[in-house]
Design a protein that fits this description.
The chain is about 70% helix and about 0% strand. By secondary structure, it is mainly α. The chain has a two-stranded antiparallel sheet. A hairpin with a 2-residue loop joins strand 2 and strand 3. The model has no long low-confidence stretch (mean pLDDT about 80).
Length: about 425
């Protein structure tokens, strides 16, 4: 009995550490991306990294305790990145300063948070079933997987002074293939902790070949509380308001897809899905407000978590909370944040891309479970084509459009989501 207890404790510790590493892996890349988009300095990116880790940990704990109650990571939203990229271009065209641009971005987060809370107050289940049925959520999940695969693939490309470093890039692709191989072919420990093993191996290999550097600045503080309103008070712009309202539909579907995909992983045994979705909206709105107050990229439930759970074969809520609590403590210690930040973005991106494989599988299974008549096939085809086609277009293509349309048309996920919702609503079943 004692041996079994020690084994269980050791397993919980290892699982918690893997959750911690996965949370860090989902958190470090996007703050650096946003910092580069807006031309932030090293110290500012360091502060953004700390605030992001703090919000990821706090938001995950809040959702597990008061929201959807599932072990789903609240991480920086890849879908928001494209909005901020277009916002940066929009601000430059309209002569707005960096502070004004970031302040408008935070206002957009606050507005979206309010929209999510309002959605959480809707208790009519027929509303969700009619507006956001499985057809809509499966198309959204598929488009999100396509969008994230592009972001993570680009993250695996290591560049030095504009040129591709093929040695380090090849290592990143090896890490991706290694994790996928372990998750499919390994047994026992190797299969369960494939992601953690891959991250550690990749981190070590990058260190050996000179690919590890500290993207964050140093700090003399031993303990440092994340700063409020670093980018100023949230402000609102009419163009951003319109785009945010449309973008909020993708946030709604992101919440539904995250719970829905975890529902599939759990085989529906531990979840009252509708209540989880509704509570998740409310806490998701609160997390958006917290992101606005702490001047960071919005955190949302990451559907990719279901891919991680399926790959790592761990559903323990306890190890999830221990991992999140550990990250919360780490976020107050700048020296540790700096060490954590040395995890190469290419390695984190490779690990995340490996989980997208299972995310695609879940999306395709959800589509296959539908009654695929001519109506459903046509709606899926048009919405996927309209969304994915825009992923390959340059934002400059829409530079002459009004600001709100620039932001909408520059995001294939928004367009594809709106198309599938509208077509599903207009084209009634016979």
């Amino acid at each position: 009995m004692i041996v079994k207890s020690k084994k269980q404790h050791a397993e919980i510790v290892t699982q918690s550490f893997q959750w911690l590493m996965f949370m860090i892996g989902t958190s470090i890349a996007l703050p650096i991306v946003i910092g580069n988009v807006f031309g932030l300095g090293e110290t500012e990116i360091s502060g953004l990294m700390q605030r992001t880790l703090f919000l990821v940990a706090l938001g995950s704990i809040l959702q597990k305790g008061m929201g959807h109650s599932l072990p789903i990571i609240e991480g920086p939203a890849g879908s928001w990145v494209s909005v901020f990229v277009v916002l940066a271009a929009f601000s430059k065209q309209n002569g707005l300063s960096l502070d004004e641009s970031l302040s408008i971005g935070m206002g957009s987060l606050a507005l979206a948070g309010g929209f999510l809370i309002l959605m959480g107050l809707v208790k009519n289940r027929l509303f969700y079933q009619r507006v956001f049925p499985p057809l809509v959520s499966s198309v959204f999940l598929f488009l999100l997987a396509v969008q994230l695969s592009g972001i993570f693939f680009n993250g695996m490309i290591v560049k030095e002074e504009g040129d591709v470093d093929w040695k380090l890039t090849s290592l990143a692709f090896f890490v991706f293939a290694f994790i996928v191989f372990l998750s499919i072919r390994a047994r026992g420990f190797g299969k369960q902790f494939s992601l953690l093993i891959g991250i550690i191996v990749g981190w070590g290999m990058f260190a050996i070949f000179g690919g590890v550097s500290n993207p964050a600045g140093e700090s003399s503080y031993r303990i440092h509380v994340p700063e409020l309103l670093s980018w100023g008070e949230p402000t609102f712009n009419s163009s951003i308001v319109v785009a945010t309202i449309m973008f909020s539909f993708t946030l709604i579907l992101n919440n539904i897809a995250a719970v829905d995909s975890m529902y599939d992983v759990y085989d529906g045994k531990k979840i009252e899905k509708q209540d989880s979705i509704r509570k998740g909206f409310v806490v998701g709105g609160i997390n958006h407000w917290l992101s606005s107050l702490f001047s960071a990229l919005a955190i949302v439930p990451l559907p990719v978590t279901s891919g991680f759970v399926q790959t790592a074969k761990q559903k323990s809520g306890l190890s999830f909370l221990i991992g999140a609590s550990s990250l919360l403590i780490i976020s107050f210690i700048p020296q540790v944040v700096n060490v954590v930040s040395t995890l190469p973005v290419a390695v984190a991106s490779a690990a995340l891309l490996s989980t997208i494989v299972n995310m695609f599988i879940i999306a395709l299974k959800k589509m296959n479970a539908l009654e695929l008549r001519q109506r459903e096939v046509t709606i899926i085809g048009i919405s996927v084509l309209s969304g994915s086609a825009l992923f390959f277009q340059s934002p400059e293509l829409f530079a002459n459009l009004p600001g709100s349309l620039q932001i909408v048309m520059g995001n294939g996920l928004i367009v594809g989501t709106v198309v599938v919702i509208v077509m599903n609503f207009i084209w009634r079943q016979k």
